[in-house]
Design brief:
CATH topology of the largest domain: Rossmann fold
Largest sheet: 6 strands, parallel
Number of domains: 2
Strand order of the largest sheet: 2-1-3-4-5-6
Radius of gyration: 21 Å
CATH class of the largest domain: Alpha Beta
Number of helices: 13
Number of strands: 12
Distance between the termini: 20 Å
CATH superfamily of the largest domain: Glycogen Phosphorylase B
CATH architecture of the largest domain: 3-Layer(aba) Sandwich
Strand content: 15-25%
Order of helices and strands: EHEHEHEHHEHEEHEHEHEHEHEHH
Shape: globular
């Protein structure tokens, strides 16, 4: 069913469950390269790595998780290789809406528009991004994340706890999590993610709040599998949450930000909250108390979303195959 022998690759400057799931479903290899820290060093090393991968593999079909410089490099490769190369860009909310530094916005957007002229198809995660992508071109597919498969294992001597899944990104509340934790007496709050000390240096940590720092996949999955509640928050109005998909996979009640995009996807299988600390704490308790109903709704929704994902991915693959045949 899927394209397998056309030297297809998925390439990303992040390590992301969504990209890995797409590559597995499309049966194509994924190449990931993650450099943290200094932006100049990160973009320089990532660019050199990308050039190496493209020269080594010489792919005909390139799926990429959108980063501006990554797309530019792939477009340059396509120009050199000729029209035989097909580019499909998976456009996450922040990258899609990025406009570059303020003083260089016009220059940045000119390059961005030119780059998207070389993209055969784009993928967006929800219909709220249609207005953004159509400013660049009209060849898009709306494909939310697939609910991942996570193998769970038990945790001995388990106490009641919730997990706030974080990457310390700019679209996450910080102070509010401290204040919420203070209101969850008797409930441990695990805060995941590589700690950004600059974001938390001014706050006094409540006794029930535990920073996990970076966790390996097995340790992270064990933590969320045995939780009483998972929380995933964002201030981006059209951003879906990987942690919410993971909560659905392991059937743990989830609390997410109250946005249209999240409500459209998770329907009655999640609890929705503002970022008011008192309301957040109450919604954590509500999710724990309503566990049985939420798990039932999650199970039904998961089956529905799996069928939708497979159908849309097949449509995308058929469209790519048609383009390849015509080249």
């Amino acid at each position: 069913m899927m394209i397998k022998k056309q030297r297809s690759i998925w390439i990303s400057w992040h390590k992301h469950v969504r990209s890995r799931t797409f590559s597995r479903m499309l049966d194509i290899p994924i190449y990931e390269y993650l450099v943290t820290g200094n932006a100049f060093l990160r973009h320089g090393l990532s660019s050199l790595w990308t050039v190496y991968i493209l020269i080594k593999i010489r792919p005909r079909i390139i799926y990429l998780q959108l980063s501006f410089m990554l797309l530019l490099i792939c477009v340059l490769y396509k120009r050199i290789a000729g029209k035989r190369v097909v580019i499909i860009a998976d456009c996450h909310t922040k990258a899609l809406r990025q406009r570059g530094p303020r003083k260089y916005t016009r220059f940045f957007m000119w390059f961005k528009n030119k780059s998207f002229q070389e993209v055969e198809f784009t993928i967006i995660s929800n219909s709220n991004l249609i207005n953004d992508i159509t400013k660049l071109h009209n060849r898009y597919f709306v494909i939310p994340d697939k609910i991942p498969f996570i193998r769970c294992s038990g945790m001995p001597d388990r106490k009641k706890y919730m997990v706030y899944v974080s990457s310390f990104a700019v679209d996450e509340p910080v102070h509010e999590i401290y204040l919420m934790s203070e209101k969850l007496d008797g409930i441990q709050v695990y805060w995941t993610g590589k700690i950004n000390k600059l974001l938390i240096k001014d706050f006094q940590k409540p006794s029930n709040l535990i920073f996990t720092d970076y966790l390996s996949d097995p340790d992270y999955y064990k933590l969320i599998c045995n939780a009483d509640c998972i929380m995933a928050l964002t201030t981006e109005r059209d951003c879906l949450q990987c942690a919410a998909y993971e909560a659905m996979s392991v059937l743990v009640p989830v609390v997410v930000s109250d946005t249209t995009a999240l409500r459209d996807y998770f329907r009655d299988a999640a609890v929705y909250t503002s970022h008011d600390p008192e309301e957040m704490a109450e919604n954590v308790k509500k999710a724990m108390a309503d566990r049985d109903r939420l798990i039932k709704n999650m199970t039904n929704l998961k089956q529905k979303r799996d069928k939708e994902f497979t159908g849309v991915l097949e449509n995308l693959n058929a469209s790519v195959e048609e383009i390849v045949r015509d080249l």
